[in-house]
């Protein structure tokens, strides 16, 4: 196997074309086999096998800087930079990350995970190289989906006026996670398939073939005419007008074309864009047929392409999707928005039932928030469904365009908490800290999937900025048949009454709180257990009652400690002049949490019932002999 001889990117430079074609086949087989066992972003990586081989054939990593936008398609890059042996640990705790990680390899020169950052980073590196009088290249590999992200367009605008050695490889597979959307995507499609371009090209070739015995010189001239005609009719005029040299579109699975074009790009000065046409999932029919599903997939059966999933209660995402469809049946003003993630956020059904009230804005979270504000101003009740981590992109819009004007926008914040295998860039553990200090906002998190239904219904009635946040988890399998009802705003819920300790738990941490309480009850302690439910406004009446009880109070949340629910409660007690309270907060410490199984990660940061019980036992007065 050629693949197993690769411990450094220079190895691939020594292969001839036939060997590179063999290597591409080996890599595809390897990816399918490995990702079927670990899960991961198979489709995107199958689409960039030849592109990555060509890049490492023409350029010299790490001197030439390769920045992989989003980074979910960097598995082939990792294979070619000597990490193929680690693929059995892909996305496992302490194993290979599914995204570029500088600590993993010198060839991972910039960490990504959130979309559309590669051109900005590459441009910065290109300017640094110029100022350092270095001649290396900075190369951003960005997908057609990521190119719809505002920061990418900001970077194109800035780069276009520069004279630095920046190469942008536009990996165009017509897909974001779902089908790509927007005017830019339509423009790219025209460039791929423009009848003018292909007609003019055919006409020229037809004429040339008519003229007998054309010398190679004439043919080269004719080729140049054909290429210059392309710029007249089709071209990448958009990119050319922005100051880029545009090369393409070229077949992203043809190694010869790729290498010759990249050699041409390497020789040129100034900002340059190579438009590469690829197929997402290339070489594995189930992934080619279903690129959305195989964008990011769990373990699957290679023969059938079927996911290997255990039977489980519906996910919070599914319950959100079903509930918003049910509410929208009666409430005609509900409109739903996604930033290129209809499937991931559970909005597929809504988009089919109410297409006129559904908006996929591309990877454009900032725009999505202010679009929602505009829709609300027009009398609609917009619901922006977005992962916690990606809403970070729209912070100013939430504050400035929604809350300041107190506009009724609902934020369905999915993946709130540790997400597991995607790691640091995707854990949704910061949103309380960046949202709860904004005036006019309401923030709630359900204890289970049934309470999520009621929270969504409550949010629609609230007529203000509301965040309903929920985890990347399956529900608890609770009954969901009861009528939708409004929850009392700002009120916690007593799950259990006790005297010796009070535990306030947020979302899925309630099950941990109940486990802690049952462990302590074996030691004759009785425990108040509260489902926090609201992070803002706080339930001040209940907090006062807990303080008056005089028992220790612990708060458990799957969110950074700094700025989370526990912080809010401490702030309240300080403002209320409550002194000498015994309070202990449990949550995410002040560090980035790496990738791995969620339960493993919780254990690593002391967020298990056993660890919490042990620690708070020291807090509690001695009661019985065997404590
Ligand atoms: C800011 C942000 N929003 C959303 C996502 C989720 N996401 C990951 S990959 C992707 C689609 C990327 O499409 P494209 O750039 O075309 O790459 P492809 O998967 O087609 O290779 C999206 C929306 C993200 N990573 N970052
Ligand atoms: C690469 C990326 O950002 C998305 O594909 C993300 O990995 C999806 O996460 P979920 O698997 O939680 O939908
Ligand atoms: Mg794409």
TrEMBL record:
Q: What is its EC number?
A: 2.2.1.7
Signal peptide location: none
Q: What protein name is recorded for this chain? A: 1-deoxy-D-xylulose-5-phosphate synthase
Q: Where does Mg(2+) bind?
A: 144, 173
Q: Which SMART domains match?
A: Transket_pyr
Q: Which organism is it from?
A: Desulfuribacillus alkaliarsenatis
**Cofactor(s) recorded in Swiss-Prot or TrEMBL:** thiamine diphosphate; Mg(2+)
Give the reactions, separated by semicolons, that this protein catalyses. Answer: D-glyceraldehyde 3-phosphate + pyruvate + H(+) = 1-deoxy-D-xylulose 5-phosphate + CO2
GO CC field: cytosol
Give the pathway listed in the UniProt entry for this protein: Metabolic intermediate biosynthesis; 1-deoxy-D-xylulose 5-phosphate biosynthesis; 1-deoxy-D-xylulose 5-phosphate from D-glyceraldehyde 3-phosphate and pyruvate: step 1/1
Please give the function described in this protein's UniProt entry: Catalyzes the acyloin condensation reaction between C atoms 2 and 3 of pyruvate and glyceraldehyde 3-phosphate to yield 1-deoxy-D-xylulose-5-phosphate (DXP).
């Amino acid at each position: 196997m050629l693949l197993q001889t690769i411990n450094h990117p220079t190895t691939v430079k020594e292969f001839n074309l036939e060997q590179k074609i063999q290597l591409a086949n080996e890599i595809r087989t390897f990816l399918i086999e490995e990702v079927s066992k670990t899960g991961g972003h198979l489709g995107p990586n199958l689409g960039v096998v030849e592109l990555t081989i060509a890049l490492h054939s023409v350029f010299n990593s790490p001197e030439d800087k390769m920045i992989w936008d989003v980074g979910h398609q960097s598995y082939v890059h990792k294979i070619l930079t000597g990490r193929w042996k680690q693929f059995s640990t892909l996305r496992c705790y302490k194993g290979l990350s599914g995204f570029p990680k500088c600590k993993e390899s010198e060839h991972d020169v910039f960490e990504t995970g959130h979309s559309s950052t590669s051109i900005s980073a590459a441009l910065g590196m290109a300017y640094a190289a110029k100022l350092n009088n270095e001649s290396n290249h900075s190369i951003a590999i960005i997908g057609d989906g990521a190119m719809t992200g505002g920061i990418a367009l900001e970077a194109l605008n800035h780069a276009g006026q520069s004279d630095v050695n920046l190469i942008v490889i536009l990996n165009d597979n017509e897909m974001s996670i779902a089908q790509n959307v927007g005017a830019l995507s339509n423009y790219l499609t025209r460039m791929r398939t423009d009848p003018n371009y292909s007609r003019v090209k055919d006409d020229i070739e037809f004429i040339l073939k008519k003229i007998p015995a054309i010398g190679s010189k004439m043919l080269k001239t004719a080729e140049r005419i054909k290429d210059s005609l392309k710029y007249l009719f089709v071209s990448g005029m958009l990119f050319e007008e922005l100051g880029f040299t545009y090369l393409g579109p070229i077949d992203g699975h043809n190694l010869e074309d790729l290498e010759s074009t990249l050699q041409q790009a390497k020789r040129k000065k100034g900002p340059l864009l190579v438009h590469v046409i690829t197929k997402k999932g290339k070489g594995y029919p189930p992934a080619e047929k279903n690129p959305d599903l195989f964008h990011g997939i769990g373990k699957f059966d290679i023969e059938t392409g079927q996911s290997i999933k255990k039977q489980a209660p519906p996910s919070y995402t599914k319950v959100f999707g079903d509930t918003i469809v049910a509410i929208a049946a009666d409430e005609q003003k509900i409109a739903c928005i996604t930033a290129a993630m209809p499937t991931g956020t559970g909005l597929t059904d809504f988009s089919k039932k109410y297409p006129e009230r559904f908006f996929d804005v591309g990877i454009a979270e900032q725009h999505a928030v202010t679009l929602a504000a505009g829709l609300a101003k027009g009398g609609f009740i917009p619901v922006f469904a977005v992962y916690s981590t990606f809403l970070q992109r729209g912070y100013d819009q939430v504050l400035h365009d929604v809350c300041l004007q107190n506009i009724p926008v609902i934020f369905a914040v999915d993946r709130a908490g540790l997400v597991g295998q995607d790691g640091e860039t995707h854990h949704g553990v910061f949103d309380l800290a960046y949202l709860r200090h904004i005036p006019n906002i309401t923030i709630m998190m359900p204890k289970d999937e049934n309470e999520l239904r009621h929270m969504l219904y409550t949010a629609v009635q609230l007529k203000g900025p509301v965040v309903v946040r929920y985890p990347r988890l399956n529900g608890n399998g609770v009954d969901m048949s009861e009528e939708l009802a409004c929850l009392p705003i700002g009120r916690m819920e007593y799950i259990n009454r006790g005297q010796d300790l009070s535990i306030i738990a947020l979302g899925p941490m309630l099950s941990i709180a109940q486990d802690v309480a049952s462990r302590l009850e074996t030691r004759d302690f009785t425990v108040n257990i509260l489902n926090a439910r609201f992070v803002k406004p706080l339930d001040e009446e209940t907090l006062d009652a807990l303080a008056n009880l005089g028992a220790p109070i612990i708060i458990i949340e799957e969110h950074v400690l700094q700025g989370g629910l526990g912080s809010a409660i401490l702030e309240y007690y300080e403002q209320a002049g409550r002194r000498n309270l015994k309070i202990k907060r449990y949550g995410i410490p002040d560090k980035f949490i790496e990738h791995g199984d969620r339960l493993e990660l919780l254990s690593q940061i002391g967020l298990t019932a056993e660890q919490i019980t042990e620690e708070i036992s020291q807090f509690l007065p001695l009661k019985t002999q065997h404590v």
